[in-house]
């Protein structure tokens, strides 16, 4: 069964990014439509589970938008203004609606990385 999920790890503090705000958007050319907004739980995941499930998966272009600078500022991290990394957009495609798409983010105030997880 196809689904989309995410998981964010705070590599500065060595823990899940609990409390980070995230948006899931559907991309249509230059237009981005927000499908859902959520806050990561204590495990750095969405409390409601899959962001898209078998009924809502559709082929196309998507974006996960992670609010990184506000997350670190809320933890008391002194960041420059403007922050080196503010929001992190990860644009990706879903081609196979029956597949699992997991988009993890490893992030600090100075660097981030992602990959297609399992």
What are its keywords?
118 residues; 8 strands; mainly beta; Immunoglobulin-like; globular; four-stranded mixed sheet
Molecular structure report:
The chain has 118 residues and is mainly beta. It has a single domain (3-114), classed as Transthyretin/hydroxyisourate hydrolase domain (Immunoglobulin-like, Sandwich). Helix content is 6%, strand content 46%. It has one helix at residues 68-74, and strands at residues 3-10, 15-16, 21-28, 31-39, 60-67, 87-94, 100-107, 112-114. The longest helix has 7 residues, at 68-74. The model has no long low-confidence stretch (mean pLDDT 97).
Helix content range: under 10%
**Second-tier CATH architecture:** Sandwich
Q: What's the CATH topology label?
A: Immunoglobulin-like
Low-confidence stretches are none
Mean pLDDT: 97
- The CATH fourth-level homologous superfamily: Transthyretin/hydroxyisourate hydrolase domain
The CATH C-level class name: Mainly Beta
Q: What class, by secondary structure content?
A: mainly beta
Number of domains: 1
Instruction: Describe the sheet with the most strands.
Output: 4 strands, mixed
Which shape, going by the Cα principal axes?
globular
Number of helices: 1
Number of strands: 8
Present the secondary structure layout.
Layout: E1 3-10, E2 15-16, E3 21-28, E4 31-39, E5 60-67, H1 68-74, E6 87-94, E7 100-107, E8 112-114
Parallel strand pairs: 1-7
Antiparallel strand pairs: 1-2, 3-4, 3-5, 5-6, 7-8
């Amino acid at each position: 069964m196809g689904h989309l999920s995410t998981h964010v790890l705070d590599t500065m503090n060595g823990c899940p990014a609990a409390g980070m705000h995230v948006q899931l958007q559907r991309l249509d050319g230059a237009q981005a439509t927000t499908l859902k907004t959520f806050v990561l739980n204590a495990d750095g995941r969405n409390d409601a589970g899959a962001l898209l499930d078998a009924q809502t998966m559709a082929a196309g272009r998507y974006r996960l938008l992670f609010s990184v600078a506000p997350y670190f500022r809320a933890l008391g991290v002194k960041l420059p203004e403007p922050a080196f990394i503010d929001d992190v957009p990860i644009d990706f495609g879903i081609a196979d609606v029956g597949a699992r798409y997991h988009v993890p983010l490893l992030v600090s105030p100075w660097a981030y990385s992602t990959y297609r997880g399992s």
